[in-house]
């Protein structure tokens, strides 16, 4: 006999409306905690000043006033975009799913007639919607007041940036889902969580532009991992580091990685459901 699990292959219109309702509820949830959002934006802005002064000092000491191919205005813009994307893409998300797995509360998620991965994605997109108008926009506005930021010259850059940030959020969600799902086997996922924070902070473009690294290593990161598509690609799109055709190809790469990582998350979830059923959970 095949065990019946909560993974659903083809959502109908009712299920899609449910996902939309989940996203809207998550938007309202984050909009409720205004003081926490203000504190997060203040913290991001403080670190934005620190990072910006450090990288501008590096650019000031380099030939031509540029560092790794970034002129001073684009480098400052890169920093403030990164500070805004940190909370929007949500690299450092609390391990809520891992905690639900540890306590057994995840069984309630598996009993619902919807795909758990897509349900959690819908909730994350609701969070993304609120973060995009707060944690993304406000730090960039703060940076624009204090520094000379770069304004995109090509109109196509703006829709590409919006699509890039959305794709980065989906890719990051799938990566975090996989990290959280290790709790199905390990029960305590703190080790994978710490590893994810360390690797994503260093290799996603959040701490510094990946162009600072040797070219072969940067190329390997773009081809073999989804990490550069979290912060580096959206930031490069907005500062127009590459021609529009190249930026469109980079966003297409994000779409491909989003599809791959979501497929991996759904595969791992199906394996985890089999494990829960076999263990009698």
Give a written overview of the molecule.
The chain is mainly α and 281 residues long. The chain has one domain (13-278). Helix content is 73%, strand content 1%. It is built from twelve helices and two strands. It has a two-stranded antiparallel ribbon with strand order 1-2. Helix 11 (232-238) packs antiparallel against helix 12. 40% of the residues are buried. Residues 1-5 have low confidence and may be disordered.
- Number of helices, counting only DSSP H or I runs of 4 residues or more: 12
User: Radius of gyration, Cα only, in angstroms?
Assistant: 20 Å
Total strand segments = 2
Helices and strands, in N-to-C order? HHEEHHHHHHHHHH
Features of the shown structure:
mainly alpha, 2 strands, 73% helix, globular, disordered N terminus, transmembrane, transmembrane helix, ABC transporter permease
Can you summarize this structure?
Pfam families: ABC2_membrane_6. The chain is mainly α.
Task: Give the arrangement of secondary structure elements.
Layout: H1 13-32, H2 34-60, E1 66-67, E2 70-71, H3 72-90, H4 96-103, H5 106-111, H6 116-146, H7 157-181, H8 183-186, H9 190-203, H10 215-224, H11 232-238, H12 244-278
Antiparallel strand pairs: 1-2
Helix pairs in contact: 1-6, 2-3, 2-6, 3-6, 3-7, 3-11, 4-7, 6-7, 7-11, 7-12, 11-12
